[in-house]
Structure prediction request, 596 residues.
Amino acid sequence: MRNKWIALLLLVCMAVPVVASAADIPAELPRNETLYLGGLQWSPVVSWNPFTDSPNNALANDGQASRRLLVREALYMYNFLDNSLTPLLASGAPEWNEDMTEITVKMNTAAHFNDGSPLTAEDVAYTWATHVKYATSFGTVHSEFIADIVALDAETVVFKAALNDAGQTKNPLEVINFIPQMYVVSKAWIEVLEERSGGDADALKNDTGEDFVTSGPYAGGFYADDQKVVILRDDNYWGQDASMWGKLPVPKYLANTIYADNAASERAFRDGEIDVNQSFIANVENLWLVDNLPISTYMDEAPWGICLTTPTAWFNFNNPILADNLAIRKAIAIAVDYDQINANAMTGQSPTFAQAPRALMNPTDAEQAMYDQAAVAHLQWVGKDIEGANKLLDEAGILVGDSGWREIDGVKLSFNAVCPQGWTDWMASMEIVAAAGKDIGIEITTLFPEWSEVQTVFTDGNQTQYDIFMWGGDGSGLNYPWQRVRNRMSSEYIGLVGNWNGNWGQFTNARADEIIAAIPFETDPEALKALYTEAVEIYLTNVPSFALMYRPEMFHSVNESVWTNYPEYGDGNNIPPTCLINGYGIAGLYNLELVD
Prediction:
């Protein structure tokens, strides 16, 4: 308690607001009206402008398919539990035209911005036009698949797909996946922004946007300094309408204290100063099983949460030894002790590869059902197969030489294994990869550069510095698991500099490219399953990279010392574990109750 009051005193003394808008936010927030979030904001907010490429604003902005919908809103809320869209600013489902070149969305006529002005299809169209005109990163990425967005009238917006030379939609999956991702911004406010930036793209994107006009449930005002970020509920929020939630979210304030590191954040969570925590906590179950704290996770048994991502070790095909020798790649991959990674790096917060066989899918039932496991079972491995790995290398004639290590043409096999410094669970994973190399006579040396260096190297398609390197690069969305197949094997990324999209190892396979091109247009479930099965077969046969673990897109643990009735697995509400802030996860904000 003493630390808590000292922290509050420091906040009061040091707080210098960026801006106060719509209402005063007290320096000391009423605990029974405030939901504290953790593991989201680690440094001061840069911007509230929705067109800024790097706003560093965790409460207002997010790049996942499950968009952060507290301050700004999108047409739909994505739910990865069932891969569904629930209307938010929209009314009803998005509808394709007959030839699948356009999608029509009807607007919820009850929606309005926090200044009281109506939110219409014209705001949707003008938001997109602004992204395109000023070449924001969002506009640049999605312009490849979205040709235009047109407001037919105040209540009807049409998304026009980019077409190929044959007049077909380039990629239906990318179009439908785009629709729940674009925040809708007030046209009137954008015009103010344009006027004060003089139409200059850099000036517009660098504007901090502190006078934002938006529609979210927490667009009532904000406070931000180098100690905390607070957003205030808009008590005139349109979502009280019977067509939407019919009420306001329960907490009046959402706050994120900015902690120095994970250790400080975990202490605050233990002490009840954080209610909903996104940080990874090793052996999280000990918080209630050993320490008897009122803490829980979304699931009441391991892996405690829903794992959607597959952090992966990538082989660099710019290294000819790795590119030309499948036996080396596969031997390393099957020798790694993945159960040790799960136990040490993830502390059991991941299904094993025995429970969810490795493929190009995450471990959810929906994705695991999208390929024929029996057809590729002979290619799957669970790890720590030292005997099998040594046999592969021996049969390939890659034998132990005078150096004491396996050699090719008298030169010992020596590679580095890289991930960022300070990413402790990833560092532990790379050490286990290196240990596997030692077990099979291949020297693998771990390197842990600073993130500032790592991000410039692995995103360069011509790099030769890193031999084996760890990166995630996947998640969830309406375009998965296709996007993961593309991410792992598409040749469209070969040789790119500044590539954040995929295939960082530079693997190429002509049939994989054909499958990647075909999947978005396939509507027959059996044919689609056959394509995914073949993609998995190519991937597991060639081993261009290999998943090290399954991991949640967001960690989600809660302390029930102040608030209770959080979403739980199997409670019948179908609310995903996104810390009550992303996608349909925000539905949990409307169910919270104070602890008696």
Remarks:
- Confidence is low (pLDDT under 50) at residues 1-20.
- The chain is about 30% helix and 15% strand.
